[in-house]
Write a structure and sequence with these properties.
Elements lengths: L3 H14 L5 E6 L12 H8 L8 E3 L2 E5 L5 E6 L4 E6 L9 E7 L6 E6 L5 E6 L23 H10 L4 H5 L10 H11 L12 H20 L41 E5 L2 E5 L13
Antiparallel strand pairs: 1-6, 2-3, 3-4, 4-8, 5-7, 6-7, 9-10
């Protein structure tokens, strides 16, 4: 699933291309892609027609386009394979095209939502007083947000009876971090994924946040991480940060810091990649 850097790359493309334009027509080609819009596809299309789109915004792995001064927004979740593509109207339809949006200005072109696995989708939601779509009001700020509260994050880590990777993936605590960037930040911080959060000092949690920010900014600079053709930006281009990964996906390859073979372990229906020497497992307390 796309994480913060991948979603931010898409947001920037939408901000350049879709922000400030007025919707002319909407065509919903698959009902699952608007299943979170409970009134259905026809209502979704009708409520978008004639509406100006505001600048694209993001919170964690979610992005949205405000609908002018209506007090509601089009919320997008890319799921496992969702793509928001900018295409000329003359371009052939993609095999998994689900929603088509056209605009009423001479610039032309279409905004297309393409989704092979149909886990993602678009939906309309009223905005909260803070400007968030109400469906994601519970999502925490992300580490790149200038208003992210580091002190509150550290306090929450110390209070929770959990482990550090679980905490990083808890979107109500810190948003935008997924499996890839959690493993990368933990490798940089020399922390094992099962380290109890209660053992982290304030300087250690601050250091970890710094590594999360560094790895996300590095990924942004390279267009995100693409392991296949499913994640692309609005122009259909893949990111290339996968070449720079230090831990994730590198099972049995030498650690770039100490040379020990990187290991992979099953973890919460996912995998965790780590260096057993640089990131030793926490000691088990007995008795």
């Amino acid at each position: 699933m796309p994480e913060l850097p991948e979603v931010e790359v898409v947001r920037r493309g939408l901000e350049r291309w879709a922000g400030g334009r007025t919707v002319d027509e909407v065509e919903v080609l698959h009902p699952r892609s608007v299943r979170r819009h409970l009134a259905g596809g026809e209502d979704f299309a009708a409520r978008l027609r004639g509406r100006p789109l505001g600048p694209a915004r993001r919170r964690g792995k979610y992005l949205w386009l405000p609908l002018g001064d209506e007090g509601s927004s089009v919320l997008a979740h890319l799921g496992m394979s969702g793509q928001l593509l900018v295409q000329p109207a003359t371009a052939p339809d993609e095999k998994h095209l689900r929603i088509r949006v056209t605009f009423d200005d001479p610039e032309g072109g279409e905004l297309r939502f393409v989704d092979q696995r149909t886990f993602g989708g678009l939906s309309l939601h009223p905005d909260t007083p803070g400007g968030l779509p109400d469906a994601i009001a519970h999502i925490a700020r992300d580490p790149l947000d200038p208003e992210f509260d580091e002190a509150a994050f550290h306090t929450a880590l110390r209070r929770r009876r959990t482990t550090v990777k679980r905490a990083l993936l808890d979107q109500s605590l810190v948003s935008g971090v997924g499996n890839i960037y959690a493993d990368e930040a933990l490798w940089r911080a020399k922390l094992h994924y099962d380290r109890p959060t209660a053992t982290l000092t304030r300087p250690r949690s601050t250091e970890l946040l710094g590594h999360v920010r560094d790895v996300m900014n590095a990924a942004l600079a390279e267009g995100g991480t693409s392991f296949d053709s499913l994640y692309v930006n609005v122009n259909g281009e893949s990111g290339y940060f996968a070449r720079s990964l230090d831990a994730y996906g590198r099972e049995d390859e030498p650690c770039r810091r100490c040379g020990t073979a990187v290991r992979r372990r099953p973890w919460m229906n996912r995998s965790s990649y780590f260096c057993p020497r640089c990131q030793p497992a926490p000691r088990v307390r007995r008795g």
